[in-house]
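Technical note accompanying the year-one report. For the benefit of new consortium partners, we illustrate the data format agreed upon in the data management plan: each record pairs a sequence with a structure-token string. No post-processing was applied to the example shown here.
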Amino acid sequence: MFETILDEEERGQVGIGTLIVFIAMVLVAAIAAGVLINTAGFLQTQAEATGEESTSQVSERLQVVSQSGDISDDVANTTERGIGELEFVVASAPGADNIDLNEVSVELVGTAGQETFQLDEDPPATNDIFTTADDSNVLTDNSDRAEVTINLQATDTFEDDDGYALTEGDSLTVTFTTASGASTTTEIRVPTTLVGDDGDSVRL
């Protein structure tokens, strides 16, 4: 059944062929392992970066503590009563890193259309951190509080020059978006009857 090779030269040739095949298999396996290791490292790095960005978009956002508006007897160049200026008290959400208010954008969506601007654009917006003594506009701790003021009558619209001033019964959606892309949306609804004098503040 088995053929015995007695010729020493023929036996040596068979051994060299097997060795070449073995070395080739080892080289292919080594190359494949190197490719897999490099790919795994790249995927790990990309996954870590994606995870950090996703965490930032969830946690690094503003939290609206309170919202109010100033009553005006003649908003939008009319004799109607309404809200000409909005005031928000904001803080950083739990788990958020430092948030630079000057890099926060505001989006207004209402009956007058849509408008986006930065919190450092004065007018229509101003911001002031009143819980610290310095002039920094960066929220560094969850206990920090900042007052954000938006002059609705100083905003521009495509339809008219009266801005986004709200009359009784109007509503407005305000969205704050931080530099990391995390958004916070709040709804402003003006009561159908405003109780108070011109210049008074009312919670919305």
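Partners are asked to follow this layout when depositing records. The CA atoms of residues 100 and 138 lie 4 Å apart.
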